[in-house]
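Exercise 7. Given the encoded structure of a 87-residue chain, write a plausible sequence.
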């Protein structure tokens, strides 16, 4: 089981458990866990409304695609803690 701590924009923190080997994106997991995350394009890596920031690990579980990295290059607020959108 993978446990992530999600902090929303209001500073509220909540753990989310994800079974290893699940075939859902982080955005899909967050939406299924009733987190209010935008995803205007439905996870197609077109709009970055699901952009998340990773404050600390587990980096080994999430690997951005080339498409996601290209999209992040277009965002003015993407920084070193923004290695990928949630999709």
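Solution.
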């Amino acid at each position: 089981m993978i446990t992530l701590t999600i902090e929303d924009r209001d500073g509220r923190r909540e753990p989310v458990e994800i079974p290893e080997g699940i075939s859902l994106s982080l955005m899909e997991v967050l939406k299924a866990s009733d987190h209010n995350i935008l995803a205007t394009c439905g996870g197609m890596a077109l709009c970055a409304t699901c952009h998340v920031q990773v404050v600390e690990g587990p980096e080994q579980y999430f690997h951005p695609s080339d498409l996601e990295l290209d999209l992040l290059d277009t965002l003015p607020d993407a920084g070193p803690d923004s290695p990928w959108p949630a999709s």
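Remark. The chain has a mean pLDDT of 75. Students should compare their own answers with the one above.
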